[in-house]
Inverse folding.
């Protein structure tokens, strides 16, 4: 059997606004708000004090013996406060906090009130029935930026809009504490005005019901409304701390209610809002556009509470892209004319990874160090081929294309915010399978193969670094939001390719077991280093490394063995390579 609490959450998630709340004095108990009967008894004590008599231990019995009938709320108020202003001030002391009470947190909205307000603000609950006189619910809902419609008198029922047109309606069945017509005594609770009865009948017929903090013991008219409702469109859920009263048990049986054992109202409503939020996140629509994906990443990067949602988003989109890449790659592999359609193939790969690319760009730009594993994992997964055969140079190069695009996109995004350490991790940490071996991804996406593929595209035949030139062009627009100036974009691109070459040279040397073999891919900056001597990225990076300390970001993440000496050695070897 499904836990009734989980069933309630699932039903509310599936049918937003279909459930009304019925909350009694138990919900306000934690706020130190007295029940209506407790107010009556205290007023009776005040009358006894005025008469200089002792009413204890039973103020109600004393009052009946003194005046011949049970204590009546309105009569007591009239007897103690002769004017409306006096009566209001008297009532305020029961429901509004003094300075001392405010400091102690008494007579303030509780966790339960705040959670109910959140349910209302998010559209899970639009109708709230309450037997309480206080205004804690109203205050909590207003704090959520929602102005509830409050119905506390029969006249207000006639003036209210139909429930279907209201975002949030509070029906105060027994009135408001500042209105002397509130219902307290047994004879007052025995029958409602016909206008209130009609409203109750509509609510109980059209909505499910969640009962919390109401014993059903004293409220005869409310019990009668529940008893006469013939329909069961939605389930009734009845929350109970200990056990139901006899009256509540009979009503629960009549309405075939699901009983939920709770610790208190605070924990129940708090858990309910948390579970509904979790269901909402799990049922989020797939990000069908770059804008939707970016919006979700923005939200999930906002705090650690969304860590799981962010990981789910990245993982789901990565897997979806990987499946499409693999399926398309198999089709390309079987095509005898693939060599003639490289530009079309590349465009299709970019279409497949467009949303994932947006996620990586925004994540690498605004994410923190603890998010880097997500982008690294994505690069590793996208690089993974189902068919691990070496294949032709052209085919291998084509399949590497999505990985290279995402590597450049995320690396450039991180570098646009000066996250050099993150760039180092993106370059050095991802691994891939190549020729039945696990190798650093940076070494596995071989530039020779990539340039061979890119050089087959029209207009790229004579480029020195055709893949670099291609990536420079296709990534311009996706990164324009973060690098709006063309000169800044070009400098960032050149800087990224220079760092990529340094890290590649370091990893290549280590892969050769320390043998003094140096090689690294030379990007588009290689051509410009000759045409703009003194202003090229090579010159600037040479100076930057000369001025670096052991705290230089790439050293801090463990590259070049964390050694400034090795960094300079790799740089010098790389520059010697460029000079040849």
């Amino acid at each position: 059997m499904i836990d009734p609490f989980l069933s309630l959450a699932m039903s509310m998630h599936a049918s937003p606004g279909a459930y009304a709340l019925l909350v009694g004095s138990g919900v306000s108990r934690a706020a130190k708000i007295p029940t209506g009967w407790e107010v009556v008894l205290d007023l009776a004590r005040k009358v006894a004090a005025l008469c200089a008599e002792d009413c204890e231990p039973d103020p109600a019995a004393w009052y009946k013996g003194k005046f011949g009938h049970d204590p009546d709320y309105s009569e007591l108020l009239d007897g103690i406060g002769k004017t409306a202003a006096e009566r209001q001030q008297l009532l305020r002391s029961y429901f509004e906090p003094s300075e001392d009470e405010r400091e102690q947190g008494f007579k303030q909205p509780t966790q339960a009130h705040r959670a109910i307000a959140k349910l209302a603000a998010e559209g899970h609950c639009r109708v709230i029935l309450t037997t309480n006189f206080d205004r804690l619910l109203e205050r909590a809902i207003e704090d959520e930026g929602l102005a509830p419609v409050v119905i506390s008198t029969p006249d207000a029922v006639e003036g209210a809009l139909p429930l279907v047109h209201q975002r949030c309606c509070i029906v105060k069945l027994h009135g408001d504490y500042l209105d002397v017509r509130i219902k307290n005594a047994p004879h007052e609770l025995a029958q409602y005005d016909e206008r209130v009865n009609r409203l109750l009948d509509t609510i109980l017929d059209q909505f499910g019901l969640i009962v919390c903090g109401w014993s059903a013991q004293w409220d005869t008219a409310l019990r009668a409304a529940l008893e006469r409702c013939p329909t069961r469109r939605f389930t009734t859920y009845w929350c109970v701390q200990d056990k139901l009263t006899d009256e509540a048990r009979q009503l629960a049986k009549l309405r075939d209610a699901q009983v939920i054992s709770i610790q208190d109202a605070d924990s129940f409503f708090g858990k309910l809002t948390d579970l509904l939020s979790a269901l909402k996140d799990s049922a989020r629509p797939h990000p069908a556009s770059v804008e939707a994906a970016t919006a979700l990443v923005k939200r999930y990067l906002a705090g650690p509470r969304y860590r799981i949602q962010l990981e789910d988003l990245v993982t789901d989109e990565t897997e979806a892209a990987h499946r499409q890449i693999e399926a398309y790659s198999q089709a390309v592999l079987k095509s005898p004319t693939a060599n003639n359609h490289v530009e079309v193939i590349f465009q299709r790969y970019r279409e497949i990874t467009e949303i994932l690319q947006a996620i990586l760009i925004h994540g690498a730009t605004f994410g923190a160090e603890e998010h880097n594993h997500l982008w690294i994992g994505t690069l590793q997964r996208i690089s993974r081929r189902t068919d691990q055969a070496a294949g032709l140079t052209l085919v291998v190069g084509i399949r590497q294309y999505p990985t290279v695009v995402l590597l450049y996109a995320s690396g450039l995004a991180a570098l646009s915010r000066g996250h050099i350490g993150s760039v180092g991790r993106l370059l050095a940490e991802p691994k891939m399978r190549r020729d039945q071996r696990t190798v650093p991804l940076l070494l596995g996406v071989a530039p020779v193969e990539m340039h061979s593929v890119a050089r087959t595209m029209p207009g790229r035949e004579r480029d020195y670094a055709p893949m670099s030139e291609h990536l420079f062009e296709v990534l311009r627009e996706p990164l324009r939001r973060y690098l709006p100036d063309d000169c800044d974009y070009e400098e960032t691109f050149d800087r990224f390719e220079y760092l990529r070459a340094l890290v590649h040279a370091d990893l290549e040397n280590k892969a050769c077991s320390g043998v003094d073999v140096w090689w690294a891919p030379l990007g588009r900056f290689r051509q410009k280093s000759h045409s703009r001597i003194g202003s090229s990225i090579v010159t600037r990076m040479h100076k930057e490394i000369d001025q670096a300390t052991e705290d230089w970001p790439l050293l801090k993440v463990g590259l070049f063995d964390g050694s400034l000496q090795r960094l300079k050695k790799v740089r010098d070897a790389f520059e010697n390579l460029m000079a040849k």
